[in-house]
Amino acid sequence: MPARILAAVLTVLVMGLSFSGAASAETDKAEVKYPEGYRDWTHVKSMVIRKGHPLYESFGGIHHVYANDKALKAMKAGTPYPDGSVLIFDLFEAKSGNNALVEGPRKVLGVMQKDAKKFGETGGWGFEGFKGDTRERAVSDPKGACFTCHEGQKGSDYVFSTYRK
Fold this sequence. Notes:
Elements lengths: L2 H25 L14 E8 L6 H4 L1 E7 L1 H9 L8 E12 L2 E15 L10 E7 L10 H9 L15
Antiparallel strand pairs: 1-2, 2-3, 3-4, 4-5
């Protein structure tokens, strides 16, 4: 094979490897996955944020918190959460009628996923929100949009919810 052709083939191979490396780096980006089957997990808390609360504009409505088995075990023991722990924050509009407060449409499905290696900059937790009943990601800056608020909860491994016995 002539040297010129060999050089061209090697250049194409090197470029191909460079692009595949970039693609795999993009694929390896630390993302929180949509939590399949979370409604079968343990429901650990509900609350309503009403008008007048400082977080009402962003998080007003009915909240349900779910924990997977790893998160539940740590929550019950009051210990740090191990990698693989996942907490769900399911937020619905609060509708009032017939002297009752009921769930309206889902506003956001918030997810905290523990993986100390992937999410070292945010206390070992990955944060994501999915819009309404979709899988469309809602968090473009997990550190600024989520972790800055959770940072004050360092003593409880950055988690607000506790297990009620």
